[in-house]
């Protein structure tokens, strides 16, 4: 229940702050180490940028202190580094989720399903090769999200290009 309330508090705060315009310019931040939900509330309050996030899987997770000059988006990335969340700007504010990792996972599953349907026509070694490539893409996406707090458009494109290449090979 505490986790659900944390997520709702962020969303509730987002609604209140939405009345004030999201300030996109760099600002000085001086946040102590605290729970992720508290840090995101503080970010929303100090920037006027509502933060949309489901904190259910991140209950009570601590984030390091945030000191320095950042745009709201950069501050979000700093706060969520190491959590596995990806931070993105929205028209009204900020959002943290796992959308790109989920998209990579869904496409990876499509490749796995196609491999399963073709087990009689491709060698065991080729199946293992595909599985290794799939795992590398999934692992890289998760690692980038943890290291950076976001997945860049270039990395996103590379992940999907790799998976699409495998799909195209398997469909031949």
UniProtKB/TrEMBL annotation:
<protein>
    <submittedName>
        <fullName>Uncharacterized protein</fullName>
    </submittedName>
</protein>
<feature type="signal peptide">
    <location>
        <begin position="1"/>
        <end position="20"/>
    </location>
</feature>
<keyword id="KW-0732">Signal</keyword>
């Amino acid at each position: 229940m505490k986790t659900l309330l944390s997520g709702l508090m962020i969303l509730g705060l987002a609604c209140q702050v939405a009345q004030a315009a999201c300030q996109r310019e760099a600002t000085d931040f001086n946040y102590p180490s605290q729970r992720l939900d508290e840090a995101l509330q503080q970010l929303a309050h100090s920037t006027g940028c509502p933060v949309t996030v489901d904190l259910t899987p991140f209950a009570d997770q601590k984030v390091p202190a945030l000191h320095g000059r950042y745009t709201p988006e950069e501050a979000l990335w700093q706060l969520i580094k190491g959590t596995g969340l990806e931070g993105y700007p929205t028209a009204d504010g900020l959002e943290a989720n796992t959308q790109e990792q989920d998209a990579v996972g869904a496409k990876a599953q499509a490749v796995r399903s196609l491999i399963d349907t073709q087990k009689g026509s491709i060698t065991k070694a080729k199946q293992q090769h595909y599985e290794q490539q799939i795992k590398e893409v999934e692992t890289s996406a998760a690692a980038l999200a943890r290291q950076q707090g976001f997945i860049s458009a270039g990395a996103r494109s590379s992940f999907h290009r790799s998976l699409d290449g495998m799909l195209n090979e398997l469909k031949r």
